[in-house]
Amino acid sequence: MNPSQPEASDRQGPPWIQPEIQQQIEWRNGDVIISVPAKSGTTWTMNIVHQLFAGGSADFDDIYAEVPWIEFISHPEQPQQEVVDRVAAMPTTRPRAFKTHSAPPTLPFIKAGSGPDLKYIVVFRNPEEALVSFRPFFDQHADEWYQMWDLPKAALCRDDFPSFYYEVVNKAQMQGMFFGFLADWWPLRTEKNVLFLHYNDMKRDHEATLKKIADFLGIEPTAEQWQAIATYTSFPWMKQHEEKFEARTAGLVPILKSGAMIRKGESGKAKSEGMTEEIAKHLREVGSQICNDPVALDWYYNGGDLP
Length: 307
Prior knowledge:
Elements: E1 32-35, H1 42-54, H2 63-66, H3 80-88, E2 97-100, E3 119-124, H4 127-139, H5 143-148, H6 161-169, H7 175-185, E4 194-198, H8 199-204, H9 206-217, H10 223-232, H11 235-240, H12 277-290, H13 294-302
């Protein structure tokens, strides 16, 4: 195969993601923005932040009601202003947290001390692992969802990963969703109101991750709350209660089939899910065109101490 190389500036996504909405949000002091590429630990991080704010609580029905997705449209006729108004109507009595798959400048970045007091939690995952997780995720979107958007399921779904990579990801130049995200965020990694995390490190030490995020947010849970937070953010608990993490209140019709959002949560298993040496090499070459900093790329693939 000799797939064409995508341009760095071309970053494609499904039609229900409309990142320009974020430019219209009126931010408040204390807002937390969880910025993560697709299939890279977003839902887990959303739940961690929610649990830290709540002091450890299982009393919620849908994480997307607690941590809204600020670039998401629930149906084709929904005006963007409706999303903006819903965000503005959130209570002022508690901190707000939001999900986004965007990076600056699409996601507005406000430097500490130069505007509303915002905090950004930015999570990365080895792009090979994210992409192999992307394929079954598209397949697990409900038929009603594709039908509502008048989008043939075959436009995003394939039976095997190589076909998905070459015919969907590479054709639509989706590599930019991952490596462009890295290129845009990397220069901001040392900003005071930015916390970089890597999925590998989060998996390696759950407790340390909770502590790092809590410190970043200025939250000091009690010992009892820590125990609850650790339980409710564990993979087994989230898998057992996956109905709370499947965006059931976010769409006009069902978005996902059951089990789509909380899959395996593993690291280092890309090859077993279809990643080949040829695809890995091509992905890295394309990624190097989009983000040409070798230090950033090495950290993106491996995690560890932030350079």
